[in-house]
Structures are given as C-alpha cells and as structure tokens.
Amino acid sequence: MASSDSAALVLNASYEPLCVVSSRRAAVLVLTAKAVAVADGDGVLHSERTSMAVPSVVRLSRFVKVPYRATVPLTRKAVFARDGGKCVYCSAPATSLDHVVPKSRGGPHTWDNVVSACSRCNHVKADRGIAELGWRFNRTPAVPAGSAWRVVGARRVDPRWRPFLDGGSAEDAAVLDEPA
Ligand SMILES: [Zn+2]
C-alpha cells in the first residue's frame, strides 16, 4: 500500500512533464490503460484482481495537447522559487513578496511586478519605485517557463522524476523550503 502522500509524475506521450498526481490516481491511469508506468516507486498496490508496483512516473498513452504557455500560479512559494529564495535587491534570504511598482501606485499583482524581498529592503523601499531609489534587478522579473514548473506545487520532488524534468534551477527551486 502506498503511503497517502506518495505522488507520481505524469508525463505526456511525448515525455513532457504535465503534472503531479497521487500514486493511487496514477495507478488507476495505468490499470485503465490510459498510461504506462515508466518508473516504479516504493511498495506495491493491491486490488481485487491484481497487484502492481506503486508508480512513481507514468506516461500517458495518448498525446494530450497543452497550452503553449501553461500558467504557473502566482503564489509566494512559486515567486520564492523563481527568485532562488533570495531578495532580488540585496540577495539576503527572502522573507516577503514585494510589488516593484507599489500597489498604492496601481502596480498589478502579476509575475513581472511581484518579486521576493527581504524585510529590510521591503521596509526601506516602502511606497517608492526602484528608479527613485536607484535600485536595479540582476534579472528582469518574468513569468517562469519550462516543464519543471509544472511540479512547483508538489510537496516534494521524487528523485526518480529528475531525469524527466528540464531546467536544473527550477527543478531545485521546486523543493525550496520557505523561510519560517
Ligand atoms: Zn533585500
């Protein structure tokens, strides 16, 4: 029996990572011939008629069309992951989100206007824009891209998924723990 929190990576027929589902859900996909197991996890699942290794990675039997740019939800965890867990202004450990153009000045809550920041920079910056402060980015904030971002929401990244995920940094970022 798989532990309740075990998860499986679902690949498209083209081997592109699509999402993360529970191991039980992945097993159903395999048993209904909607997917084939690519990598086994730990343990065995039993049903009335059969038993199978807990799937860790499954691949869909039929190709599923996905939007060119799958949306990455704008969450604190995802912003921290994109920015490497560091303040984009001073590289100290990030503790909060900052709106580059402050909300009070109509700055939107979008990927190109939200960055991770430390409390000190957030406090110093307050309601000012970075041009007024003479601050600069090392990298312009943007919507994260790449298939590894499909698993940012997963609680942990199974090492057996790594061969199927692209972009090393995002892959590592996906397991980044938020500072307390
Ligand atoms: Zn800072």
What does the model show?
The protein has helices at about 25-30, 75-80, 120-125, 130-135, 170-175, and strands at about 5-10, 15-20, 35-45, 50-60, 95-100, 115. Strand 1 (about 5-10) and strand 2 form a beta hairpin. The strands form two sheets. It has a four-stranded mixed sheet, covered by helices on one side. With about 180 residues, the chain is of the alpha+beta class. The two termini are about 35 Å apart. The protein is elongated and about 70 Å long. Residues about 165-180 have low confidence and may be disordered. About 20% of the residues lie in helices and about 25% in strands. Bound molecules: zinc ion. Zinc ion (ZN) binds near residues 89 and 120. Zinc ion (ZN) binds near residues 90 and 92.
What descriptive keywords fit this protein?
single chain; alpha+beta; two-stranded antiparallel sheet; 6 strands; disordered C terminus
Q: What's the alpha carbon Rg, rounded to whole Å?
A: 20 Å
> Low-confidence segments, ≥5 residues, pLDDT <50?
167-180
What oligomerization state is this entry in? single chain
Helix content: 10-25%
Mean pLDDT: 83
Biggest sheet descriptor: 4 strands, mixed
C-alpha termini separation: 33 Å
Q: How many strands in all?
A: 6
N to C succession of SSEs: EEHEEHEEHHH
* Basic shape: elongated
Strand content: 15-25%
Strand order of the largest sheet: 2-1-4-3
Bound molecules: zinc ion
Work out the helix count: 5
Q: What is the structural class? A: alpha+beta
